[in-house]
Design brief:
This protein has 393 residues and is of the alpha+beta class. The chain is globular and about 70 Å long.
Amino acid sequence: MLIDISGNIYAGRTPPEHYEQLIAFLDEVFFRDDDPETKRDFMSLLPKLYQPRYDPCYNNFCVMEGDTVKAAVGLYYNTVSAGGEALRCGGIGNVAVARDARSKGYMINCMNQALDDMIASKTDFGLLGGQRQRYGYFSFEPAGLQYSFGFNLSNIRHCFGSDAENILDVREIAPQDTQTLEAVERLLRSESCYAPHQPDELYDILCSWRSRPFAAFKGEAFRGFFTVGREGGLGDFKAVDADACKEMVLAVFETVQNPQLGFTVAPFDKTGLDFFTVTAENCSLRHSECYTVLCFERVLRAFLKVKAALEPLCDGEASFLIHGRAGDENLAVSVKAGVPEVAKSQGPAAFELGHHEAMRAFFSLSSAERRTFPPQIAQWFPLPMFTYHFDSV
């Protein structure tokens, strides 16, 4: 902890006895009094994080003046399985400073506490949503891949026929629907990249950002799930196979009652990508989140394996000296017979990259640094990092 000379300033994890004050503080900072449509209730926004059973005080680094919380940054750890590798992930959220405590460096202090904790606990990568330059100071960079496909009623008529009808039974998921939640989790874990969820926490996770989760069935056979945002737009979407994609599209349109929708598809969801590529009205590709990588060796190895499962990788080898936020890494990266490998290297590196340069070269849609790579090396990138909306913080 940090204490000023007057003994009035505390910096560290939020003391547990200040739970109610922490939640009230977040409500005060994040919601406007002049918006009648806004419910001042941070708990309903992210029940997966702020219920007492999830210990939000321990997961929030704060600065307090006396007994009053004046700033807080949430840090929530999770595991991500990518290419068979278990990666430690730190998600940062609820970056908040009281209106009467701005320009005192409190947010910087909380963010640095969070980054220091991530590095000390050997976290592989972190993520957050927020303004690029604001969080660039703390090593985050827009990165990853997210496909969005525009689909409308005209597409349905031409692709499926004017008489196409929904044949699925769509049911809103409830907390007690254990078997359905288990089916959702099995579907997510069928991909080469996923974040494992505890069964008793998945419902709260799917309800993130005040979303409503739905599952679709043909008879009693589970065909997929989707979420609907509080303003009626489509959130996350995933079907069990190609036939289910067509069935699910019709089910979603009937449920949401909107003439046009955007379907977000993960870059490793080959079923969804292949279906929408030949049916959707349009496609856009954007970054998934702001990410920072704190162990390039493990993250590169894992996501090269994910990409190798999606498409053939060119054989080749390259060496990189990366001056990362968590320290320097000298790595030899190779692909042989389509199989990637990443290992520590002692020799001179062909490419020397700063932290942000490495993030862009390996994980961003566009990179000046990547354009200097040999073509067979550049083909490996960008790597398909992605975060479902319900897994973001």
